[in-house]
Amino acid sequence: MARAGECPSSQSEIATDRPDVTNSSLVVPAGSIQSENGVNTSRQNAGKGFDGSNSRIRFGIAPCLEVLVDVPSYVGRLTGAIDNGFTNVSPAVKWQVSGLPEPANLSVVFGVGLPTGTAAVAGDGFQPYLQFPWSYELGGGWGISGMFTSFFRPSDLASHQTSEATFVIERKVTEKLALFAEYIGDYPSRGTSTALLNVGGGYLLNRTEQLDFHLAFGLNRNSPDYIIGVGYSYRWDNVLGTATRPTLRH
């Protein structure tokens, strides 16, 4: 958790948009580049599959402002009839609202999925979205956060818009380890909704590196049976001056 109400600096601990679905309410420090990566395996009615590397690159271009891009991930089949292929390239802009009361943080994100992926996996056409991640520190290492996202798919004749709501309870167990429990609900304008319970955590290797893990369970018949994932994120600070790459551990 970072100090609430302030935008991060290069002295802040890394704050990632993973492993929970709820993105961080904080931006990347100005002048820093952050790479977040992971791989998942999942099971649903159609079979078992995997996806990776689920990479997001974030660049702090000014105080309280970043640009980010989700690079294509590969979705593969392990068993059953799951479609194979790549997801879209999805650039976005994220602005952290400054000057809020100290326990609270809020950001606004606007992005768009470009039609670069496999249609059977990513869908057709441009797919813009608007997103509001927030967080609130309760004290004693406890915090709550959540996110509301509206996804638009103009080319999808069956469902043009999907709303997603998340809610997270987080506990910082030690200076390096934080655990969370998260609810995720997706509600399309037409069709059936999905719901997941996601639990996991993040472990700080140092101020700019994090390992993470998560395990999600479907809460209704339309959701995946389970999703298991692990990831690694790192941040380069002061890339406009002397860039220092964190030491990678093996």
Characterization of the model:
By secondary structure, this protein is mostly beta strands. The protein is 2% helix and 57% strand. The protein contains one helix and 14 strands. The chain has one helix at 119-122, and strands at 33-44, 47-62, 65-70, 74-80, 85-86, 90-97, 104-113, 127-139, 142-152, 161-172, 177-188, 194-206, 209-218, 226-236. The chain has a twelve-stranded antiparallel barrel. A hairpin with a 4-residue loop joins strand 10 (161-172) and strand 11. The longest helix has 4 residues, at 119-122. The model is unreliable at 242-247 (pLDDT under 50).
Brief descriptors of the model:
mainly beta, 12-stranded antiparallel barrel, 2% helix
